[in-house]
Amino acid sequence: MNNDFNRRDFLKVLGWGGTAVALSGCGNGMVESGKETVVSYVETNDYMIPSVSVYFNSTCAQCDAGCSIMGRVREGRVLKLEGNPNSAINRGKTCGLGQAGVQHHYNPDRVREPLLRTGDQGEAISWDKAYALIAEKLKGVSGEEIAFLTGGVSGHLKVLMGNYLDSFGCKNHFVYEAIAPAVVRAANKKSYGVEMPRFNINKAKVVLSFGADFLGAWVSPVNFSQQYAQFRKGVNGQRGVLIQVESKMTITGANADRWLAVRPGTEGILALGIIHALGTATGEVAAAVKGYDKERVSRDTGVSAEQIDKIAALLKARTPSLVLVGSAAEGYAHGSQNAAAINLLNQVLGNVGKTVEGAAIVPFPQMMPATGNTVALNKLNKGLNEGKYKVLFSYATNPVFTAPGAMKFKDNMAKAGFKVAFAHYLDETAMQADLVLPLDSALEDWGTQVPEYMAEGAQINIQQPLMEKLHPGTRGMGDILLALIKQRGAADYKNFDDFYAYLRSAVLHNKGALGGSGVADDDIFWNETLSKGIVKLPGAAHASLSARSGASGLSLPAPAAIDAQYPLQLIPHVNASLRDGRNTNQPWLQESPDPLTTIVWDSWVEIHPKKAAELGIVEGDIVEVTGKNGSVKVQAYVFPGIHPDAISIPIGRGHEAMGRYAKGYGVNPFQILDLVYDKETGELALHETRVKISKTGQRVIVVKDEGPVGGNQEGQKIVPRMTTDKVNLSKEI
Amino acid sequence: MSISTLFADYSQFRHRHPDGDVPHNPYKWAMAIDLDACSGCNACAVACYAENNLPVVGREKFANGQAMHWMRIERYWDQDGREFPDQGARYLPMLCQQCEAAPCETVCPVGATNHTPDGLNSQVYNRCIGSRYCSSNCPYKVRYFNWWDYPTTDNVWPAEMNLQLNPDVTVRGKGVMEKCTFCMQRLRAAESDAKTQGRLVRDGEVQTACQQACPTSAISFGNLVDPESRVHKQWRAQQVELDKHEQAKDEEAGGSDLRGYRIYEWLAPYPSIMYMERVREIAI
Predict the structure, then answer these.
(1) Which residues contact B229 (CB under 8 A, 6 or more apart)?
(2) Is residue B2 in some structural domain?
(3) What residues have CB less than 8 Å from A199, skipping those under 6 apart?
(4) Is the peptide bond before B26 cis (omega within 30 degrees of 0)?
(5) I want to staple A67 with a disulfide (CB 3.0 to 4.6 A). Which of A60, A178, A272, A628 is the partner?
(6) Over A202-219, what HEC string results?
(7) Are A414 and A117 in contact (CB under 8 A)?
(8) Pairing between strand A458-463 and A534-537?
């Protein structure tokens, strides 16, 4: 470390590089030799008593929200995951998906050995051979001929990945998260200056959500659920009011005081109509909403003029409020415009700075989550089709399952010279790979994670093994990347025997910025960090929000006319437990009833009773849902919470591979999606697929939890309900 | 054990719904569930699977009504004939109500289900002969029968999955009835820890698995006879009394502003779970 240049390079190696380096004091502390025995945290220590459980902190990897968990460990086995109360994100709570994390770890269908494809056969090979093979395939390959496809990644894993690709001069890191709110991020960036601000649901008196399923699958549901509980209790007994606008009821909609079945795609028009009804806008905003009088808006959206007035009156009377824009509003060709119109409503109401705030910033850009969606996948897909890539790596994403069938990703992937999949299961994408490298489960691996949605203060989450590895043949993703980076002869890494040593060095090197400035002893600080499972960054700066109205550029199309051949709009629904399908092989989730329909172990198509009567469809009819890009056959469920012009099929089922609990259950609506993109961002418009529906003549009994009378209480007082004028919440404990 | 103990009269030790002479002492475990906070997300139900070794039965057995969810979310719709359910759905976490005068207890031919001193409705697996009378007598439909031997059934706990089983909870075999225990293994651990330290279990010291997971903290759980416990305060604020089957809420003319109620109160099973009604805004 003789000069500044070297030091900067070195910081980059450890993940602390970038423009906003917050290292405390230069030159304090050299890198550890890295040569030390890795002592697993679960090896029996004197504080471990047989039959007494010990809890270790780590980070949930079931989705990317970054909830901190405590694993209950007994006799060397992890038995259950609880929320870590010290995390600002989940405060001791977990969702059902998080609870099922142990079933990812103990899953019987995990890949256990590196597998090499020869024709149709897979052959188990050693890791040495696998690494040698990768080195051989990469020989003489230029950076442009390599593609690295991942899901959302952050922390030191992303650092290593980036540095590995840099060693080839490769810029082809494609991030594809199939159900990420990519359009909303871009719209937020325009409206607020940041992609993901902090939402203070608990400070709002009214929440008006345009299809943001914040209690189910949107962004950081466990954090939002807790805020929601506070919001419902309100201040001084005045309970928060939730209005949900969407064409298909989500679990958030099912909890709304008023759920509005808006005509698909007209969410932005309704937002402008509300601004118009508020009557407070001036200047360019007033100009933008001119013409959006309630009669016209009511005609376009299907929401009554009286209702629009009521919403406007409520938003005026109770401030601050909060307007959210979610997946239902962004999933159209004009998704960006929808989102901009909805964000404009937030600005008009003066919520920016009150219920929409800048989140705390983790000052290490190298570690910030990499995000992306179909734009990245399309770029990769195009390159694959042109035969540009000689080597393709794939990690934590399953595009063969989640890419719209019409993209022909599977066929194009075959054109890559050599395909390496880092995988937990032999999922659809791993099945197409030439080499499958089995990964440690999230409960066996080391890592750091930076959540995209920061609740309060900035934090970096620690992931650590909760028990010994179940299968000797699996490796941690960090260890694999380190091995690959060493193949590149990167001298910077030669001192790190494994990812653990790297991680420890990295954390200790930047002790001061991670809240350890007062701790002289490295071991003490490291052990404290592991035992907390969270690194809270003291004094982190908060992003400042800009308030650009963007009203002048708004242009919303008139509601789409009904297509004569394909009269229905298909809404692929994101279910809170199955999400994009990566967790479908966890049987607790398969048997966890859908909150709206109570259906288990299968897919279904939701049809409004009126439409069902019109088409002569009853519950259990197997219907064929046909679009321009194919069809699926699926059982019908007559469901009142959907617009009559739309039907909905849940995402996440319909796997053709992955494992015994996933394969062969249900259908995959991704396969029949139309390739319509948001005009501004180019992201897939998930709700733009037009379909028709026809009976096949077959009928099945729908396997569901609700009884034969459905959701009818038959006059019994099982779940009574009160109105706000009858109840006095301020008296309650 | 001597012959004399065998013939001794144990009726004095038998527990029942307490009256003035035999109060619950020192524990009476009870719950309060706020339906205005509950979002119906199912986290509680999955947490229960994880804690209590519940088998995943699969599609076919689920279709036959053999699901083993001790905790389930019931979803109801308004029956007002409107085009859309525009005030949302109604969710109800349904689990064993741990009745004080449990209809299931009186019909068990072998005394396999009975009342414990701390107010739980217990199920003794070793004693159960599988008559299933208890289940047919339960108004809440929260008793689950092992129609199959799940530990030996394919894909219920295949290799590795079995390592997740909670060693503090029995894995049940074919032919016995089972149900929610209020996470009795956690209660017993807390009770005996407290006893060793010469004190009572403090409020918040023990949580049920469903309560611990619940993202909206809709579930509170604790000792109803401890005046400092949250659950005691909630019951008192809602004026719900354990040993009555007509509550202040129902007696108030013109409706009450209280939210607390118990399901099927009029059957007088004296449930240990108080629900608090869901609320809906009138201004919208």
Answers:
(1) B203, B222, B223
(2) no
(3) A214, A224, A227, A322, A324, A355, A356
(4) yes
(5) A60
(6) HHCCEEEEECCCCCCCCC
(7) no
(8) antiparallel
* Helix (H) and strand (E) counts in chain B: 9, 11
Across the interface, of A106, A108, A311, the residue whose CB is closest to B284 is: A311
CA distances from residue A596 to A432, A446, A534, B40 in whole angstroms, order as listed: 35, 37, 35, 9
Residue B168 sits at the vertex; the CA angle it makes with B167 and B172, to the nearest 5 degrees, is 80
Q: pTM, whole model, 2 decimals?
A: 0.94
User: What is the model's pLDDT at position A13?
Assistant: 73
Q: Residue A194: helix, strand or coil by DSSP?
A: coil
Predicted ipTM beyond 0.95: no
Q: Give the list of residues 6+ apart from residue B135 with CB closer than 8 angstroms, or none.
A: B104, B141, B143, B144, B145, B177
Q: Which domains does chain A have, with CATH numbers?
A: 182-357 (3.40.228.10), 568-699 (2.40.40.20)
pLDDT digits 0-9 by tens, A230-243:
999 987 778 999 99
d(CA A703, CA A370): 39
Q: Would you say residue B15 lies in a domain?
A: no
Has residue B204 been placed in a domain? yes
Q: Are A124 and A426 in contact (CB under 8 A)?
A: no
- Point out the residue among A228, A253, A602 whose CB comes nearest to the CB of B88: A253
For residue B178, the domain's CATH number is 3.30.70.20
pLDDT in tens, B212-250: 999 999 999 999 999 999 999 999 999 999 988 888 888
Task: Determine, yes or no, domain membership for B5.
Answer: no
Distance CA B62, CA A97 (A): 20
Question: CA nearest A703 in B: which residue?
Answer: B63
Query: How many Cβ atoms from other residues are within 10 Å of residue A287's Cβ?
Result: 13
For A280-323, what is each residue's pLDDT tens digit?
988 899 999 999 999 999 999 999 999 999 999 999 999 999 99
Which tokens go with A578? 């199955």
Backbone angles phi, psi at B148, to 5 degrees: -130, 165
The 10 Å CB-count burial string (b at 16+, else e) for A247-268 is bbbbbbbbbbbbbbbbbbbbbb
Q: How far apart are CA A426 and CA A428, in angstroms?
A: 7
Residue B125's domain comprises 23-276
A555 to chain B, closest Cα gap in Å: 29
- Show Cβ contacts of residue A472 under 8 Å, excluding neighbours closer than 6 positions: none
Inter-chain touch B281–A258, beta carbons under 8 Å: yes
- Total structural domains within chain B: 1
Q: How many A/B residue pairs have CB atoms within 8 Å? A: 281
Q: Judged by CB atoms within 8 Å, which residues 438-477 of A form the interface with B? A: 470
